[in-house]
Design goal:
With 238 residues, the chain is of the alpha/beta class. The chain is 50% helix and 16% strand. It has helices spanning 25-40, 65-70, 72-91, 107-113, 131-134, 140-149, 153-160, 168-174, 184-201, 205-215, 217-223, 229-233; strands spanning 2-7, 10-15, 49-54, 58-60, 96-100, 103-105, 117-121, 127-128, 179-181. The strands form two sheets. Strands 1-2-3-5-7-9 form a six-stranded mixed beta sheet, sandwiched between helices. Strands 4-6-8 form a three-stranded parallel beta sheet. Strand 2 (10-15), helix 1 (25-40) and strand 3 form a beta-alpha-beta unit. Helix 1 packs parallel to helix 3 (72-91) and helix 6 (140-149) runs antiparallel to helix 11. The chain is globular and about 45 Å long.
């Protein structure tokens, strides 16, 4: 489901396979386990960097809604586990880079946005908050992530209320994507180069992580709220 590779001070976490990388409980646990391994790696230094990417045409196509429909308890489990994963990323004591090499939709969009830097291929894929199109209410904690990561009110409107399918070049214009590349390989290469540059700066990861937690305090507060997945889906078609 995912692999973790260490290249010098870079950790490369890859969602493997040609599927949609739907965020089911098992995949979310696997990603969280990889991040826990990074935290506990004795060779990890205060100047390390995490890069998250994927194989195939999807970065992540969001929650596994079919699974949630078959068992309502899994809605709560997926929501809880993604909250924990995002909190892990926010508190991780190192910079994080999402190398988006395919579609990132709904919860997959939130996963990408939970990184400090977002790089994206421009020959395929889009960022897409699909909830408006599939008639689901966007969770308040998703909104908190979007509000903190997308500065322009017009861009937030287009992402959340018109469900725009944002290409890499459009994402750069909107301030969502830091840089676009011509292919998946070039995107990962760009992420590695950015990661190496961040390592050379010698920023203390523990200080960096604490400052990020302060910057994203609203997101962490909302993640810890009492809103449940059953509340989110109660007024929807799911």
């Amino acid at each position: 489901m995912c692999t973790l590779e260490k290249r010098g001070q870079l950790f490369l976490l890859t969602l493997t396979g040609d599927g949609e990388h739907r965020l089911n409980p098992t995949l979310l646990d696997t990603i969280r386990s990889a991040i826990a391994r990074i935290r506990s790696d004795p060779s990890s230094s205060p100047q390390s960097v995490l890069i998250t990417t994927s194989e195939g045409k999807f970065f992540s196509n969001g929650y596994n809604l079919a699974l949630a429909e078959s068992d309502p308890s899994l809605r709560v489990a997926m929501d809880s586990k993604l909250r924990s994963l995002v909190a892990d990323l926010v508190s991780l004591p190192m910079p994080t880079i999402a190398a988006v090499t395919g579609h990132a939709s709904a919860a997959g969009f939130i996963l990408a946005m939970s990184h400090d830097y977002v790089l994206m291929r421009r020959d395929r894929g889009f960022l897409y908050m699909s909830e408006m199109d599939i008639e689901l209410v966007i969770p308040a904690w998703f909104v908190a992530v979007v509000r903190m990561k997308i500065g322009s009110p017009a861009a937030r409107r287009d992402v959340m209320l018109t469900a725009e399918k944002v290409t890499a070049e459009r994402g750069v214009e909107m301030g969502i994507v830091d840089c676009s590349y011509g292919s998946a390989a070039e995107t990962v290469e760009g992420a590695v180069k950015l990661g190496e540059e961040l390592v050379r700066r010698g920023v203390d990861g523990h200080v960096y992580g604490r400052m990020r937690e302060t910057l994203l305090k609203e997101v962490l507060h909302t993640i810890g709220s009492d809103e449940s997945a059953s509340d989110i889906y109660s007024g929807s078609k799911l």
